[in-house]
Amino acid sequence: MTGHTRGREGSMGTSRRSLLGTAGAIVVGGIAGLGALGASSEPAAAVDGDPAAFEAGDSPTVTSNDGRVESVYLSPRVEVSWTDFGDGVDAVTVTLAVGGPAGVDEVYRETVTAEAADSTPDDIASVERFDAGSVAGDLAVAFERADATERGDAVTSDRLSDPTLAGGETSSTTLDLVLRADVVGGRDEATVVRTTTVDVSVENPPGDAGAGGTVDVDTA
Fold it and tell me: How far apart are the first and last CA of the chain?
């Protein structure tokens, strides 16, 4: 995990592994948990979809004379699929965390149950699909837009900003996105973890100046 490209490295107060526990595997930019659903008779799960659509101002690079990044908005849509749950699936818990040089902040943690498949608790915008099938099933859920800088103490506006930027300079912070899905049904359960990264940048545009006007010249 890297921090500002201009030397703002730091040790993480909370590691991804300690946040997410020991269950499941971690891979960067891919799917963890199994090679292909249905390859084993043991309960298995996978996650797919768009882990988070990042917005910082109008684009991933913020233009700011004071080097400040005010917000980093997340708009996740997550798909979870599973196989070989003998009694079907009772509940799926989806967790999304964001990590930076100072540690990890949990942005979302929501549970969808088969009994209330249409409910939208807290940060869930909509449950698009919940098939609790035992042989094969899936869940597609969209979350409300949230500002990651307001969900903890590790990834904040101050930590993403760089007030020392001179005109024409850019500073970037690499953030880890960690997505975890816990699938539970009867006596079966499976966990899958997926990670990816995104760079949030701030640019101080170079100084510029202009001049103009009119001059009247009279003779006598």
Answer: 75
Q: Could you say which DSSP state residue 51 is in?
A: S
Per DSSP, the three-state class of 62 is strand
Are 130 and 114 in contact, with CB atoms under 8 Å apart?
yes
Give ∠ CA 97-181-34 in degrees, rounded to 5. 120
CA–CA separation, 113 and 165 (whole Å): 48
Read off the pLDDT of residues 94-113 as tens digits, 9 standing for 90 and up.
999 999 989 999 999 999 99
- Judged on CB neighbours under 10 Å (0-12, 13-18, 19+), 148 is buried
Distance CA(181)–CA(75), nearest Å, equals 17
pTM: 0.74
